[in-house]
Amino acid sequence: MHILALPAFRDNYIWMIHDTRSAVVVDPGDADVVLAACAEGGVQPQGLQLAGILVTHHHPDHTGGVAALLRHLPVPVWGPLAEDIPGVSQRVADGDEVVLQAPELRLRVIEVPGHTLGHVAYHAQSERLLLCGDTLFSAGCGRLFEGTPAQMLHSLQRLAALPPDTQVLCAHEYTLSNLQFARHVEADNAATESYQAWCEQRRGQRLPTLPSTIGRELQVNPFLRSDQAAIRAKLEQHCGRPPADGVEAFAMLRQWKNDF
Question: Is residue 115 annotated as part of the catalytic site, yes or no?
């Protein structure tokens, strides 16, 4: 199994998973990027055969290439039941399974509302892969365009409960900007400091900082650590009062990041 991060637009990644012959792509906002990768990859003279498309949510930078890909290759498209996304042929909800024959992949659907109300993630347990769209970023999380803080916190907690070695394949290269905020709210976190140095080296070489892992995110991501005493104290200092509970702590942290 091969995993490729295909850069698109300014900071998107379209994830491609392939077995050298067949490929599935996740959130293809740009069809040309996918078609080029298929033409150039694999062991066959004709390149990789696109076998399916996975969509996490309805935003155009995640869905804009679906129609063009379907004009070239009429493949199944899986997407969230709760969102109206053109081109989706297989609507999925929490607990559903997506089973691909080539590449051989079995994915469980996890509903993760917050960024959008119908957002889903796909978890491949045997391969330890999480395709999480714009819900969980490395050292950050998505903005709450449609959902509530309580929904997003619950969604993040569900993802954080996955095995620590699960690879986190999120859809944007936001890591360094997220780490600036993470270090501001938890300045004494040595794991965040060392991770920032590694990420700076990667970006200096024009390489992705992703995938991350759940274990790493539990160490460095303030949105998975909003129950930590140091972060709670920083929130109280910033907002002038302590958060009333975990949901409010998360909401205060997310708003702070919005304004950072």
Answer: yes
